[in-house]
Amino acid sequence: xxxxxxVLEGFKSYAERTEINGFDPFFNAITGLNGSGKSNILxxxxxxxxxxxxxxxxxxxxxxxVYKNGLAGITKxxxxxxxxxxxxxxxxxxxxxxxxxxxxxxVVIGGRNKYLINGVNANNLRVQxxxxxxxxxxxxxxxxxxQGRITKVLNMKPPEILAMIEEAAGTRMYECKKISAQKxxxxxxxxxxxxxxxxxxxxxxxxxxxxxxxxxxLEYQKLMREIEHLSRLYVAxxxxxxxxxxxxxxxxxxxxxxxxxxxxxxxxxxxxKVKELSAEIQELERRRDKEVGGVLRTLEETLSEAQRVxxxxxxxxxxxxxxxxxxxxxxxxxxxxxxxDKKVMSAKEAEVAKAVERLKAVKEEGQKDAEALEAAQQxxxxxxxxxxxxxxxxxxxxxxxMMTCKNDISKAETEAxxxxxxxxxxxxxxxxxxxxxxxxDSGYKKDQDTFEAVNKCIEKLQAEMKKLNxxxxxxxxxxxxxRQFSREVIQLREAYESLMGQFPNLRxxxxxxxxxxxxxxxxxxxxNLFTVTDVSNATALEVVAGGRLYNVxxxxxxxxxKLLEKGELRRRYTIIPLNKISxxxxxxxxxxxxxxxxxxxxVHTALSLVGYESELRKAMEYVFGTTLVCDSLDxxxxxxxxxxxxxxxxxxxxDVFDPxxxxxGGARAQTASVLSKxxxxxxxxxSLRNKEAELSAVESELSGLKGTAEKYRQLKQQLDxxxxxxxxxxxxxxxxxxxxxxxxxENLRKTIEECEDTLQKTKEVQKKxxxxxxxxxxxxxxxxxxxxxxxxxxxxxxNQAKSKADAFSKRLKEKQQEADAVALELExxxxxxxxxxxxxxxVDEALKAxxxxxxxxxxxxxxxxxxxxxxxxxxxxxxxVIMGQEREIKGKSGEANRLREQNNDAQLKIKELEHxxxxxxxxxxxxxxxxxxxxAENDWISSEKHLFGQPxxxxxxxxxxxxxxxxxxxxxxxxxxxxxxxxxxxAMNMLSEAEERYNDLKKKxxxxxxxxxxxxxxxxxxxxxxxxxxxxxxxxxxKDFGSIFSTLLPGANAxxxxxxxxxxxxGLEFKVxxxxxxxxxxxxxxxxxxxxxxxxxxxxxxxxxxxxxxxLDEVDAALDLSHTQNIGQMLRTHFTHSQFVVVSLKDGMFTxxxxxxxxxxxxxxxxxxxxxxxxxxxxLAQRTQEKAKDKRQRQILAS
Length: 1199
Fold this sequence. Notes:
Blueprint: E1 2-9, E2 18-20, E3 27-32, H1 38-49, E4 76-84, E5 100-108, E6 113-117, E7 120-122, H2 124-132, E8 144-145, H3 149-154, H4 158-169, H5 172-293, H6 295-385, E9 388-389, E10 395-396, H7 398-468, H8 474-502, E11 522-525, E12 531-532, H9 538-545, E13 552-554, H10 557-566, E14 575-577, H11 588-598, E15 603-605, E16 610-611, H12 617-624, E17 628-630, H13 633-640, E18 649-651, E19 656-657, E20 663-664, H14 674-735, H15 737-781, H16 783-937, H17 940-944, H18 962-982, H19 987-1048, E21 1052-1057, E22 1069-1074, E23 1077-1078, H20 1087-1104, E24 1109-1113, H21 1121-1134, E25 1139-1143, H22 1147-1150, E26 1155-1162, E27 1165-1172, H23 1175-1198
Coiled coil: 246-376, 402-471, 681-930, 962-1032
InterPro entries: P-loop_NTPase, RecF/RecN/SMC_N, SMC, Smc2_ABC, SMC_hinge, SMC_hinge_sf
Protein name: Structural maintenance of chromosomes protein
C-alpha cells in the first residue's frame, strides 16, 4: 500500500485546492526554498494519519492548521490521500477487495473534526485501526523521521537506544502483557485481601458468636431440666405443708378461744381499779383549787405591784438617759457647726487677700492713667510754646517736617525710574521669548492634546466603573464571609450531630415512597411537633408521653401505609394518622375537682403544658390528653386516688400514680431529659438553617457579582494604565523645553506686573508727600490759625486724660468698698465662732447635771428590782407546792390511763384472736382446696405422694431444702426469662451454614493463590521470550547498522554494544571506528559523521521492521553533498519494498528520486510542480556533481 495522490485545501500555506498527483511507488523527493511549504506536505500526511502530538506538525491546536488561522476567510482545512491497494498482501484488514483507498480528514474552525473513508463518514478509532494494521501508527512511529530526530538519537542514553530496539523487535508487546499480568496479580492480591478481610471481619466473628450462642442454648436446655426437677420438689413440699396446715388448725383454734376468755376476765378487774383511782383524783383536785384561789393570788398581786413601781422608775431613768443622749448630740452639732464656720472663715480670709490684690492692681492701672495725664499736660504746654507733632507723634517744627517731605519725594522718583527700566527690559525679553515659543508650539500642543484625550478616557472609565455599582474589594469581603459562614455551618452541624448522637431516637429519616411525593404529609416525630412551655415540666411530660414520644404523625392512613412499605425506614415506628386516630381528653369536671383538691396552681393537664399547631390537636390529645401533672408526690397521690378524679397522675420528678393501684418511681437516669435537650437541638437547627441561608445568599451574591467583578477589575486595570500614561505625559509636558519657556514667560509677566505695581505705589507715595508738603506750606502761611487748631486738639486730649483719671478714682473707691465689706464679714464670722464656744460650755454644764440625776435614779431602780426578785421567789415556792399536788394527780391519772390502755389492748387482742380464728378456718378450707387443686393439676402427686419427705428419694426434704429449692427455682425462672430473650434456637443450624461458608472461602483463597502462582510463571516465560526476541533484533540491527554506516562512510565501521561492565538488557551505546581506531566517544567525530551514525541506526531499524511508507524530513541537513548522494543511492537500492517521501534541499538526495516535487510560495500561497526523473539523467547529474567536487578539490590543493 503506497500513496498515489494528495489533495490539500485550506491546510496551512495551501489556501487553494492543490492536487499532488503521480507519486512514485518507491522514491519521491520534495524540495523548495525555506518557507515555501515543502514540510507542510509531510505535516498533511501526519495530520491524516491522526497524529495526536500537534507539536510535531508545528501547531498548538487544530485551528492553527487552517490557512492563517481562519482569519483570511477560509474556515476549514481538508486533506485527502489516495492509497494504492493493489498489493493484497499489504492490504489493511477489511479492505482486501478495494484497489484504491481514499481517506479524507477535515477540521473546521470551532473544533469540528471528521474522517471519511472512500467518501463515507468514519470515526477516529476505525481510521487508526486501519493504519495500525499496516504498521503506520503515527503516534508511535518508526516510519516517520522528522526534523531533529537525528539530533535526538545522538543524545539518547543507552536505555533509550535499547528501547528503540525493543520497539522495532516488538517486545513492547511482551512488556504490555507483563504489565497486564502484574495488574492481574494486583487484582488477585486485592481479592485475597478481600477474602481474608471477610474471614477476619465477618465469618470468624460470626462463627465465634454462633459458638457462644450454641453454648447459651445448651445452657438453656440444662436450665430447663433443672427447673423441672426443682418444680416437682417444691410442689411436693407445698402439698405436704398444705396437709399439715389442715391437721393443725383445730388445736390452734382451741388455744385461741381459751386466750379470749382469760383476756375478758382481766378487763373486768381493771375497770374496778379505774373507778377507785377516779375518786382519789377528784379529792386532790378540790384541795389544789382551794390553795390556788387564796395564797397564790395574794403573792401574784404583791409581785404585780413591785413590777409596776420598778417599771415606773425604769421609765424615768430611760427618759433621763434619752435627755443625756440629746444633749450629747446637740454638743456634737455645735462642734460640727463651729468646724464648718472655721472653714468658711478660712475661705473669707482668702477672699480678703484676693480683694486686696485686686485693689493693688487697680492702683497700678491708675498709675498709668496718671502718667498719660501728665504726658497730655506736657503736650499742651509744647503746643502753647509753638511746637507741632509729626506723624510719629514726635514734636517738630513745620520747616523740619517740610524737609522730610522733600526727601520722601526724591526717594519715590528714584524708585520709579528703576522700576521703569526693569519694566522695559522685561517687556523686550517677553516679546523675544514669545517668538521662540511659537516655533515650539506644535509638538507641545500634540502632547497636550494627547494628555487631554487620556484624561477624558480616564473620566470615561471612572464613569463606567461607577455605573457598575460595584464596591472595590466587595468580592474579597464576600469570599471571607463565605469562609466564615462555612466554618460556622460546619461547627453547628457537628454540634447538631453530637446532640443527635446522644439521642439517636430523635433522628427520623425516610426516602420518598413515590415520585413527586409531598413531604408535608409526613409531619414528623411527636417529640419534634410540640414545645414545652416550662422546662421544669420536661421530665413529667417525657414520662407522660413514654414511647409515643417517638411515634410518627402523618395526615392519613394511606400516607402511613406508603411510608411503612416504601419509605425504607431504618427501624420500627408506630404511625399516628390524624384522620383515624381516636383521641380522648379529660372531662372538665374531673380537672375542676382535681384543682379544688390541691389548688389550681398545683395540678395541670399534660396537654395544657405543651404548645402545638392546631392541625396536630388530635395527635397531642392522643399522647397527652388523659394524664394530669402535679407539683409534688402528696398532691399527685391525693388526686390520683380521689374517687371524683381517679386519673393517672405524674409528678414533676417523673413518679407515676395509677388509680388502678400501681406506683412507678425511684432514681431516674443521670442523663439530661430528652425534651430539655430537644429545645437546644431546635435552637441549633434554627441557627444552622439561618447560617445556611446566609451562606446561600452570599454564594448567590458572589455568583451574581462574578461577571461584574471581572469587568470591574478589567476597567480598573485599564484605569491604572491610563492614569500611569497620564502621569508620564504630564511629566513629559513639565520637562519639555516648551513648558520651561512657558514658565519663563510666566515669570516675565509676573516681573512686569511687579514693576507696574511698584510704579503705581511710588506715584502714590510721591503724590502723598507732595500733598503733605503743600499742607505744611499752607500751615506756614497760616501759622497762627494752625497753632490755634493744634492748641484745641491738645486741650481735647488733656480733657480725655482727666476724664480717665476721674473714672479710675471712682473704680478705686468701689474696689476699696468691696475689700471693706469682705473684711466686715470676716469679723462677723469670728464673733459667731466665739458664740459657739459659749454654747458648748453651757451644754457641758447641763450634761454634768443630768449625769448626776441618772446616778441617783439608778440606785432607786436597783432597789425596786430586788423587791421584785423577792416576790418572784415566794411565788415560785408556792407554785412548787401546787406542782407537787399536780404530780400526784398526774400519777393517779396515769395509773388509771394505763389500766384503760390494758383494757384497750386486751380488746384489740380479742379482736385479733377472733380474726385469727376466722383466718385459721379460712386457711384450713384453703389448704383443703389447695390439696384438691394440686392433685388435679399434677397427676404425678397421687402416684408419688408416699415418697414425699422420705429419705433417700428425690423428695427427701432434709437432703434437699425445699425453701432453698423454691428460692433457686425463682432465680432460675428469672434467668430463664433473660435467656429466652437472648437465646438463639437456630444457632446450631446457623453455625453449620457459617462453617460451610468459611470452608468455601478457604477454597476460593487457595484457587486465587494458585492463579497468582501461574501468572508469575507466565511472567517468567514472557521475560525469557522477550530476551530471546530482543537478542535476535539486536544482532540483526547491529549487523545492518555496521553495513549501512560502512556504505555511507567507506573505510569506517560501527556497532551497537552494551556499556562497559553491563549487559544488553541494561542498554546499548554507539561504538565507531574510523579505519582501525575505535573512538572512545562520539564527540571525537565531526558533526556530519555523527549525523551519519544516527541516520545509519535509523535506516537499520527501518530494514528490520519494514513499513509500506517512509517519511524523511531534511535528514541530510548536516551532511555534505557526497554523503547525501550516498544516502540517496542507498535508499533507492536497499529499500525497494517501501515507498519513500523525502524532503531535502540537496541535489545529491533528490536526484536519486524517481519523482521530484518542487514547492514555491506565490502571493502568500504554496504551489507544487512535479518532475519525473530518468535514471540516465540522475547519473549525468551525479557525474556533474562529481566533476564540480573534483574541481573544488583541485582549487583547494592549488591554493
